[in-house]
Design goal:
- The chain has a single domain (7-275), classed as NAD(P)-binding Rossmann-like Domain (Rossmann fold, 3-Layer(aba) Sandwich).
- It contains 10 helices and 8 strands.
- It has helices at 16-28, 42-50, 71-83, 103-114, 116-125, 162-178, 180-183, 191-216, 231-234, 245-257, and strands at 7-10, 34-39, 58-63, 86-91, 129-138, 219-223, 268-270, 273-275.
- α1 packs across α10 (245-257), α3 (71-83) packs parallel to α5 and α4 (103-114) runs antiparallel to α6.
- The relative contact order is 0.14.
- The model has no long low-confidence stretch (mean pLDDT 93).
């Protein structure tokens, strides 16, 4: 019996968690399989691919800037032509924010990568996911309504489509830019509404795909890797005792390779446990 080679893809994969996910995928897959290491800078993608240890799946580099509205769709079309489908997608691309950044000045670029980038990847690759595949968005434990004022919960709760999620994220972005978010109930830390928007996107797409995905053994989920010891996290918190990206990647890779747990579908998962979307649920 012929086994179709498996195909995996990681966005934002030239450093940190994304790089660890690529390495972990390659080690858990076979030489017949392929893992795509993607990023927006050709030199960094090339260097990351060349630095990959040998063994396991083949690692190929591809340029993917999720902030480009057409890039995810173009890459998905190429991979469909090349392979017919895809088995594992980790959307990990992220723009970082520092304590000294002015949210009003950077929120446009931030949302283009973290939020609209995520929904672009979901739209582009969800139709390509093969049976028993995984479509996973790397988010955060901050991506729950518990971190949002109750008056704002209905902005993200029960959204029926990715377009509706994008609309709500855009409204929040505009409020940050014109200063009304600071005067209202929105949290000052832009990472909170952004992560909530990512999880809301997973939930909205899951509502549309749940029946067919469950029948085909597909898992669509958001994941929280937890605090990691990285230079970016270090500007906010003391991460000296936090896991490395390679250690944090283990639970995410387990989610990609273990049997599907129906309770995880459409949810935010951390270390195999579902984080409640809203207080009391």
């Amino acid at each position: 019996m012929t086994t179709i080679p498996r195909i995996a893809l990681v966005t934002g994969a030239t450093q940190g968690l994304g790089l660890a996910l690529v390495e972990g995928l390659a080690q858990r897959m076979t030489p017949a399989d392929t893992v795509y290491l993607t990023g927006r800078n050709v030199d960094r993608v090339t260097q990351a691919v060349e630095a990959m240890p040998g063994g396991g799946a083949r690692v190929r580099g591809e340029i993917l800037d999720v902030a480009d509205p057409q890039a995810a769709g173009r890459l998905a079309a190429r991979l469909k032509e090349r392979h017919g489908g895809i088995d594992v997608v980790f959307n990990n691309a992220v723009m970082r924010v520092g304590p000294d950044d002015d949210p009003r000045a950077m929120v446009d670029a931030y949302v283009e990568v973290n939020n609209f980038g995520a929904t672009r990847v979901l739209r582009a690759f969800a139709p390509l996911v093969r049976s028993n595949g995984r479509l996973i968005v790397v988010a955060s434990s901050l991506g729950t309504l518990s971190y949002l004022a109750p008056v704002l919960h209905d902005r993200f709760d029960g959204l029926a489509s990715l377009d509706e999620v994008d609309k709500q994220v855009a409204a929040w972005r505009d409020a940050v830019k014109d200063g009304s978010a600071r005067a209202g109930a929105w949290p000052g830390f832009v990472n909170i509404p952004s992560k909530i928007g990512q999880v809301a996107a997973v939930r909205a797409l899951a509502e549309q795909r749940r029946e067919q995905d469950m029948t085909r053994g597909i898992l669509l989920a958001a994941v929280c890797p937890g605090m990691m010891n990285t230079p970016t996290s270090g500007v906010w918190w003391d991460v000296s005792d936090a896991p490395s990206p390679a250690d944090a990647a283990v639970a995410l890779l387990d989610l990609a390779f273990d049997a599907v747990n129906a309770d995880h579908y459409g949810q935010l998962v951390r270390n195999g446990n579902v984080l409640p979307w809203a207080p009391g649920r």
